[in-house]
Structures are given as C-alpha cells and as structure tokens.
Amino acid sequence: MTATDADTASENRSVPDPDVPSPEFADPEAVLRLSRLAAVTAVPGGRVIAAIQQAEEHGARTPSALWELDPAGTAPARRLTSSEKGEGGPRPAPDGSVLFTSTRPDPEGGSVEDRAAIWRLPVAGEARLVASAPGGLELLAVADDGTMLAATSVLPGGTLEDDAERRTARKDAKRTTIWHTGMPIRQWDHEIGDQERHLLLVSPDGEITDLTPGVGTVALTSASADLSPDARTVATTWTRRVPGGETRSDLMLLDVATGERRTLLAADEESQVSTALFSPDGTRLAVLRWTHSTPASTSLPRLEIRGTGGEAGADVVPVDLGDLTPTDLAWAGPGTLLAAGDLHSSGAILAVDAATGAVRTLADGGVFSSLSGAEDGAVLALRSDVATPPRPVRITADGAVAELQAPGGIAALPGTLQKVVTEVDGVRVPGWLCVPSAASAADPAPVMLWIHGGPHASYNSWSWRWCPWIAVAHGWAVLMPDPAMSTGYGDTGLNRGWPRRPEVVFGECEALLDAMLERPELDGTRTAMLGASFGGFLANWIAGHSDRFGAIVSHAGLWALPQQHRTTDAAASKMRVHRHEDEDPKWYAASSPHSAAAAITTPMLVTHGNRDYRVPVSEALRLWWDLVSRWDGEPEAMPHRFLQLTSENHWVLTPSNAAAWNRAVLAFCAQHVLGGPSADEAITW
Q: Choosing a second label site near 492 at 20 to 30 A (CA), which of 17, 54, 199, 478?
C-alpha cells in the first residue's frame, strides 16, 4: 500500500482522537511517570525490600528509593529512603540490615563527589556510608560474615591510592584522550580503554582491599563475579584478547588471601563463560556458557553446575532447560538452582536439582526476574507480562504465586490482549494481539505491526517505552509477533532464520499479520510497521521491499551493513558471522537495506540516539541522506522525518524524551495512515 492509498482508504473510517482519554494510557507522559519496580530481595528476619523508580518532576531522571513490602501481601508498602540522587541495588546483610548503592551526599560531611558508594540501612535508624572509592562502587555480592565484593574503576596503570589525584589532574587538564592497543574500544554507550575495572573486597566496616591491581583495561570490563559464602574465593569471568580483533571470557577462581588465580573453565573455539554463581554452601557454581555464533549457528546458551574444588572438566552436571532461554539465575538452597527466562512468548522459573540436573517447573505464565530465596523456602521475584508491569510476587514451594502490595499498579487496560498464532511452512509463529475496546466490524481499528529487536528477544513482558497500550489508547490495534530467532523456543527457534535473514523474519511476521487482518474488527487498509534495533533493521529492509504499509517507524535501525558491521561495538561477532561483503556478496546484496534505497516509497520516521554504539548514529545519518537526497519533489512536501535524540543511547531512557518519542510516533502514523494533521505540529521544544 502506498501513502496515497492509505489516505484514500481512511476517508470513510473514523480517525482515533488523540485527545480522548483512556485511563492513564492516552498520555505517554502519564504512563512514563508511573512507579516502576526495579528489584526485590529477601532480607533476614522475614523482611522484603524493593527498589522502586519514579520519574522526577521534570522527567529528566527516574531515581529509585527503597521500600519495605509486607511478605504476607496484606499491608501497604512503606517507603524507607528518600534522596534526590536515589538508592538502588539492595542486597541483604547477615545482620538484617540492607546494603545499597547511592550517589547521595554523606550526612557526616565526608565527600563522595557524586559517585556511587555503598551504604547500610539498619533495621531501625538512618542509613550510613560504608565505603566509597574515587571511581565509584558497584556492590556485587555479600558473604555470610558480611564481607562484600564490589567493583570500581581506576585510571589505567593507577592504583586506588593515587586514583583520586590522577582523576583530578586529568579533569583539570580537560584531557580526554584514550590510548587503544586493540579491541574492544566501546560498549553500548561508553568508551573502553580509559579506565580499568577492579574487583574489591570490602569488610563489614568499610575497609577496602584491591583484589586485582594492575589488571589492565580488558580483563574485567564486562566481568560477572561472585564471592563465596566464606569470603575466601571469588569466581569471575576473565576476558582476554585473541587474534582477529576478538576476545574470549574464561572462568577464573581468585584466592582472596593470596591473590592467586586459577582457570576453572577456559573459553575455546566453541564457547565462553558469561555467568558464575556460588551455591549457598560454596561447593558448587552455576555456570552459564554461550557458544560462539558462526555463519551456520547463532550463539546458544549452555547451563551447567560445577564443583569448585576439582580439576577443570571434573564434577560437571549439565542442565537441559528445554526451550527456555535463561535470563536470570539464583540459588534457592544448596541443592536447588533457579533458572528464569523466556519460554513460548511468556516465561517461567525452572527449579534444577544441583546433583542430577533434573528440572521441574516452579512457576510459569509470566516473565520473572530479580529472584531471591527467602528464609522460609519461598522465592521472591518480579513478575511481568504484556498486560502487567513488573510486580513483586512471593512463590511458595508448590508454585503458588501471590502478589505483594507495592506502588506501580495500573488502571484498566484500554483494550484486550490475546495470544495468537499462525503456521508458516509447518512452523507455528505466535504473537500477541492488542485491540482497542471500541474496535468492531462497524468501526475497525487501524493496525500497527511491531517487530522486536535482538533478533534474540521475545514479546512476552511489559515495556515502558515500547508500550502497546499507549497506541491502543489512541485507537490502534498492535500485533507483536515472535518470529524466527525469538527467544524461548530452544536452539531450533534461535537458529531459524539465521544468519539474520530479513526475508524469513518478515515472511513469518507478514503471515501472522495477514491472518489477523481477516478479523472484521481490524482494518487491513490502514497499517503501519514499527521496529527498533534488529526490528529497526527489518523496518529499513521492509521499506525497500514492500509498499503495503502507510508508514514505517525505524528506531536504531541498521541501514548499510558493510558499514555497520565494522563500526558497531559488536564488530567482532558481526564480522565472524557475516564476513567481508566480498566473501558473501549475495547475502549482503539481499539483506542490507541500503541496497534497496531507490525502491522506498513509504513515509519513514527515523529515530536514533547519538550515544548509540551498538548501532552507531552513522546508520541513521546515512539513511536520512539517502531518503532526503532521493526525494525528487518539493522539499517541503517530503514525507520522511528524523527524530534525533542527542543524549540517548541504544534505548531512550530519559522519561521526557521517551514521551516525546511516543508523541512523534503516534502523530507520524496518524498523519500518513489515518489522514491526520502534520506530525510537525506534535513536536514541542
């Protein structure tokens, strides 16, 4: 469908009025100001502590505060902390106090210079500063005696003792240079190479010991680390450079007393380690490995439980998680590991017998995160689904799930939610369909097709910015498929459509869309397509290969693959999979959206963050030039628009920017699909 066809088709249909309210959801800013549950944890004494975010007055930040929840779920939540900077990352201490990190000022007059420090909140009384460092502190684990494992950053070649002086000198000189000696040099939205990440031991009274002095800028950059319950051993991933601009992450055990390191599991050409977690008795480690992606297979998860005292390869229990793609691990006791993750367009928690690897389902029917074992054997978690933002729940041993009272509940949804499915070449393609309550055969709703990013992801939980209910409140039906390469469908699902074949993914999404458009309450003559990251790549590719949509929205989308594969922070894996364009010219010609730039007729809204290093803004800049320079009509009549988010990264994290993004998207789609006013009128400064 061309833009002209869409305008004509909309003449005899009602245009959803953006000013007609639906509880909370019609106003993007109101939705983005709702309280957000960020974490929940069990604390000795039967207490439950949550971190809850709330957008501040101007919508510039979402600082969090600590709240105490009633474990019985009957009493209202009680706020424990309140500061302008916020408090987060709560962890229980053995004495019943709560450890957290914050950039709040020290009330006793000490200076922490707006950097994250570790604080302790006693059962009764005010929080006090425990420890700080010039590069800030990240709390990673707490041992049985209260000893803490933390991470900090120091300038390359420096020490904790001279770091403050060296930072001041660099700041005063306004020096911003980085000396690179290899890859990687960037990650998501920050540079790599200007600091070294160190692991620290912090005593209960705040004394700091650097466990990894002189470690360099690569080894611990993205390390996942844990402290044994007796505080004698640190298990950490340890990254090393290998030829070809790549890295490999081993699993190392670090003796706290001597500083001696030994390799428990070395990365090889098949896989590398991403996570290691000590059991409560310290005798086992839950280890998550990922295979290396290749042109023939994507990266696949492998969970195993290893003994901590044996030789590498000994005392290993492999765990078969079935179709579940793991996202969160936690121990419920010495013999039981919990694995939460994506499963069949929803999620589940699996309980794993540590001795045998046998698996049973503890809870399902939602996506679970922030797992924490309570003293009475119950499990605390945050649970979410497409219709429900994360809510704190208590899960008993028999799998009963009870929600605890906390801020952040939502009003009635402005429409209905249904799980849908179609079949493509013998493969079931599922998804979620959101339909406005007022939609009917007499007044069918226009339809948005959303394609998720990743490509390894799933539409299975709540999203604060890509919230379909905002669009539904404005009269749109939203279809969210889980096509090829979605998580929660095992190795087969992750590999279907690999290596990132857009025609396979769009073919499955389009088939599900066509099946849904047979419904009389949906209007197949008024459709839009939206996507971000990999979904943005699909949006860009679809724009050059189909004219069926009245509008296309591409956020953080890949445009010129020969360019993006070398400039992304993930260049090593991209080039390993897709190789140089001269080595696989057919795939590049068929898959790179820029190859079909001349065929684009659909109005496109391009949105991108300047600080995005995963999909550099150069992709949007080149796409924008190709759209504008190829427009042969009058400049003022050009239908395309570019929303540049100069302070954002791969995601739009600032609430005020997210609200503006939502308004721009709704206005652009309304203009080109529904015949509404110019989207330019929706943009305010």
A: 478
* Strand intervals (E) in 158-212: 186-187, 190-191, 196-202, 208-210
Domain boundaries, the chain: 3-29+411-682
Q: What are phi and psi of 246, to 5 degrees?
A: -105, 170
Instruction: Determine the Cα angle at 607 with ends 601 and 613, to 5°.
Output: 125
Asked if residue 529 lies in contact with residue 553, where contact means CB atoms within 8 angstroms, the answer is yes
How far is the C-alpha of 289 from the C-alpha of 70, rounded, in Å? 37
Per-residue pLDDT tens for 61-93?
A: 999 999 999 999 999 999 999 999 999 999 999
- CA quadruple 209, 213, 215, 217: dihedral sign: positive
Tell me the pLDDT tens digit for each residue of 421-473.
999 999 999 999 999 999 999 999 999 999 999 999 999 999 998 999 999 99
Structure tokens at 200: 């620290």
User: Does the bond joining 455 to the residue before it have cis omega, within 30 degrees of 0?
Assistant: yes
Instruction: Output the pLDDT for position 110.
Output: 63
- Distance between CA 65 and CA 456 in Å, rounded? 32
Q: Which residues share a beta bridge with 329? A: 339
The pair of structure tokens assigned to 10 is 């909309």
Structural tokens at position 79: 């706020």
Beta carbons of 275 and 266 less than 8 angstroms apart:
no
Cα–Cα distance for residue pair 546/664, rounded to 1 Å: 23
What single DSSP character describes residue 521?
A: T
Residue entry with tokens 């197949």? 524
**What value does the mean pLDDT of the chain take?**
94
| Strands laid side by side in the 225-227 sheet | 225-227, 233-242, 246-255, 261-265
Q: What is the pLDDT of residues 29-46, one digit of tens each?
A: 999 999 999 999 999 999
Q: Which two tokens stand for residue 499?
A: 């290596």
What pTM did the predictor assign?
Answer: 0.94
Q: How far is CA 638 from CA 603, 627, 641, 675, in A?
A: 9, 9, 8, 16
Give the amino acid at 261.
Answer: R
- Residue written as token pair 């999979």: 577
Residue position matching structure tokens 């065929």: 599
pLDDT at 166 over 50: yes
Q: Give dist(CA 476, CA 676) in Å, integer.
A: 14
Q: 391, 382 in Cβ contact below 8 A?
A: yes
CA distance 664 to 244: 42
Structure tokens at 230: 């007796």
Residue 48 β-bridge partners: 42, 69
Share of the chain above pLDDT 90, in %: 91
pLDDT at residue number 108? 72
> What would the CATH number be for the domain defined by 3-29+411-682?
3.40.50.1820
Q: Is the pLDDT of residue 674 over 50?
A: yes
pLDDT digits (tens, 9 = 90+) for 188-236: 999 999 999 999 999 999 999 999 999 999 999 999 999 999 999 999 9
CA–chain centroid gap for 563, Å, is 25
132 token code pair:
């700080």
Residues paired with 530 in a beta bridge: 450, 553
Which neighbouring-strand residues pair with 433?
418, 479
